[in-house]
Every structure is written in structure tokens, then in C-alpha cells.
Amino acid sequence: MKPAKFKYLYPSTIEETLECAFDHGEDVRFLAGGQSLVPMMNFRVATPEVLVDLNGIRELQKILIDDTGNIHIGAMTRTRTLETDNSIGTANPLLAEATKHIAHVQIRNRGTIGGSLAHADPAAELPGIILACDAEIYLQSPTRSRSVAAKDFFQGVFVTDIAQKELLIKVVMPAWPVERFWAFLEVARREGDFALVGVASWFDVDKSGRISDARVVAIGVSDRPVRLKGAEAQLSDQLPNSETFERASKAANSGITPTHDIHASAEYRREVSEVLVRRTLNEAWKRG
Amino acid sequence: MMETVHKIKLTVNDTLREFTAEARMTLADCLREKLDLTGTHLGCEHGVCGACTVIVDGKSIRSCLMFAVQANGSTVTTVEGLAENGILSPLQEAFRDNYALQCGFCTPGMLTTADAFLKENPSPSRSEVESAISGNICRCTGYISIVDAILDAATRLAEKGDK
After folding, report:
1. Domain B5-81 in this protein, CATH class
2. What CATH number was assigned to the domain covering residues B90-162?
3. pTM of the prediction?
């Protein structure tokens, strides 16, 4: 239960990070909050030769809300900051709410948004929220910068679109309309455990009182966070009421094949997905 | 395999400590083995049990998931730093008076977690306390007495503050 030996580097800028990391060959890992990587190192599931600590890079810790309302969140922003920062609570209440469900306070004090996204646990909350909000993820390598849409970023269990020699810099979440209806719920065996199933839902209502746009995203039911497009289709252009939400929840499972493991069967996850879709939609509408 | 050894400066329980440690040494191991502060307990060593919780720059963290070198320049409070001049803190007294420990293995983590929590939230509800210690596993008490103790400590600290 002790990590293998490694060389430790502590750069203070992004440029320095990219430079020093890639002077060191292939077996380099970036250390963000360390709440997933360090357990893996303690178990020696991960044995990087070089560990590049990102905790000294101030430019990765910034949160900025631009003139258009887009939220730029630096990769090294702590989960606890997302939970408690008033500007996030106003700018994207769904993100702030979902963050409360992440593990325990000691983990949230260290864990970061960039670390969670790069780790890409299929049951993790932040990847689901990023997908539900159509966020863009910014990556930088020594030779280029690029951004990837959340829907293309997650590619499987612990697998993302991040290439060799790329560092996750920030996440940009589109502006969040004040009138938007939203909710996040999850079912876990104990508080702070990974979700067996979690659902994030939001919808906008137009002047005629009908749903103009909606997202329903589930975590824990697949090898990555997934949009429940069957449910979304049932919401589109409908009046927001319990009948509509019931129809959407019945359609929650079309097109997804939940995983089964020691904690829950696929059947159970299907049933919980359906229930959580109905509950999130009702809760969203009631709160509005 | 290359390895780096680092000079580390820490303020631990109000005392400045300087030492060297291999990069792979966790803060928990460092506190116990280099600084002889064995009050910090190591249970699972992968961030699940909460026994190794210490306070770094005011925030409760798992010291098994942080390398000592990462704490360089920080202020660390361990369970040994809670009592002042040999007098138990109100939180520690409340633990004793409410029978909030049996075997004592989880206690250092419970105390450090609760200490940081009460500084952030001095008058918590019962459910907020339950949530605050959800990352700390106790196999003896059933938690009820620990929650009682933390709520009692909040009252004691408020009274102390009023005086």
C-alpha cells in the first residue's frame, strides 16, 4: 500500500508543465487533486516514472464568467470551490448542486474538475454535468491548443479524447438562462459512494408554455455519461406537466444498456433510471 | 527508476518542522514516521476510511492521498494539535463526555474532520453533522454518540465564544 518510486516535478506555469513533462518520455502522469490517481498509485495499479504536480499552477485555478455568461473553469478548480463559490451557484446551479454529491468533504477539498474529467469514471458526477451542459473541454499540447465537445470527450471507462502530450486546461460551460428548470438526483448505497445511477435534467419553456429545449443525462448506467435521448424526445415541444414527465421517464431506457455489477443489476439500474428521470423533471418544475 | 528526495518545510501544530523525504512518501507516513506524530492513523490507505484526516491550511484532507512534498510550505494540524497546553479542546471534551469513542482508531480522523467542519459551520443541524462525517468510518459506536458529541461541541464553543 505504498506507491512505487517516482520523480516528482512541480512546475508553476502551463508552458513549463508541457515542457518538463515531455522531456521525460512516455511514462509521465499529471497529478491534479490526487483523489483517484494516488489510491491507484498506493495500490501500484499506476506506477508512473514521473509525476508532474499541477497544484502550483495558478492559471489553472481560475474561474471566470465572461460577458456572454459563459463560465470558464480552470482545470485545477477544487470540487469544494464549485460547491461553495457563490458565483457558480448563480451561474450554473445544476453544477453546484451535483457537486454536493461527490464523495466526502475531505475528497472535495482536494479533488478537481479537471482531474475528474480526465479520470472519466462512468459513475462520476462532473462528467455527467459537463455533458448535460454541452460544455467544451480545452486541451493544450506543446504544439497546439484545441477544444472538444463533452459529447466527444468521453469514450469509455476511464477513456477520454485526451491525446499523449496533452494537458486539460479548462472547461467552458455555456451561459445558463436564469429561467431554466433543472434538478440532479442520484441513488448510491451510502452518502458519498459512487452513484449506482444519477440523473441530471433541465428544460427551458418558451412563451407558449411548451418545452423548447431539454437535456436528460444519466451517470452510472453505461461506460460513460449518456444523454437519454428517448426521454428528451418525449419532452420536446410538450407542456411541462406530470403526464409529460411520466412519458419521458418511460422512454428513459430506450437506446441504453445499463451495466450490471456487484452493486446493482442492469434491471435495477433501468428501473432507477426511470424513477430518477421522473423525479428530476418533477422537482425541476416544482422548484421553478 | 529515478527518484527525487525533497526538502520540506511545514508548520505542524504551530511548530516549524524541516526535513527531507522521498517524493513517494505520503503526508500521513511522514507525520507518523518522520515527525513521530502517530496520532494520525492509517486505515485503508486509499481514501475510503477517513482515519488519516488532518487539517491542511484550514481544510480537512486525507493525508494518505497527499504526498508530503505537496504540503511543503503549508500549515498542518493533526489530532495532537487540538489540545492547548495539555487541556482538551471543547470538541475533545465533548467526545469524552458523550462516549463518542470506543476503540479509538477512527477518533483522530473524526476529531480533525469535526474541528475543521465546526469552524466552517459553527451551528450545524444534526443532518449536516451526519453528512460532515460521512467520509469517516467508525466500526464501534454506530455514529450516534459521535454526532451527539459534535453537536454538543458546537454548543460548548458557542458558549465559550459568548463569554
Report:
1. alpha beta
2. 1.10.150.120
3. 0.96
